[in-house]
Amino acid sequence: YVPWVITTMIVLLASSTLISMVRETVARPEHAAATQTRSLGLLAAVIGLATPICLLLPRLVLWPLGPEYVDEGATLLRWSGLALPAATVVLVYWSICLVARRAWPVFWINMTTATAMVVGVFLIPRSSGIAAVGLLYCLVQWGLAIVVAGPALRSLRRMRAPSAPLPARSLPSP
Questions:
Q1: Could you tell me where the DSSP H helices lie in 57-168?
Q2: Are 70 and 63 in contact (CB under 8 A)?
Q3: What is the pLDDT of residue 149?
Q4: What pTM was computed for the model?
Q5: Which residues contact 4 (CB under 8 A, 6 or more apart)?
Q6: Among positive and negative, which fits the CA dihedral 35, 40, 46, 49?
Q7: In 2-70, which ranges are E strands?
């Protein structure tokens, strides 16, 4: 439970940062490049700090909770920490879709994630343990990140171009 809470808090911080970016980009398109640079820089700092901590120091992070948390949760914290960069790529695409007022890609990302996780959890053998769910989560996030990284990068470049704001329907679906 604790490793999920830790990585969920990090993902929520990333989501909050990106929601603020969306709001500012829509409200003040003339300042979009500066807003996006600041928000993406903050996001890179948070994920750049959290990922190595989750990967390299999970036992230390969980140590104050006791040896059972360390033994049972360290591998899960590693897997969910390894998923953080991929989840961030997906969240960046999600935020670009919101700026472009494209709800369907957001819906399909969320539906794909939920379906893959539910089906995957049912397919994991019971003897695998909770770390297998972390591996599944990591694989789902990286799979989605690979699919949306190209469209996200292209759309971000178009949004940041000073002469050409992103039209509402120009964002390609993954």
A1: 58-62, 67-99, 103-123, 130-160
A2: yes
A3: 96
A4: 0.84
A5: 76, 80
A6: negative
A7: none
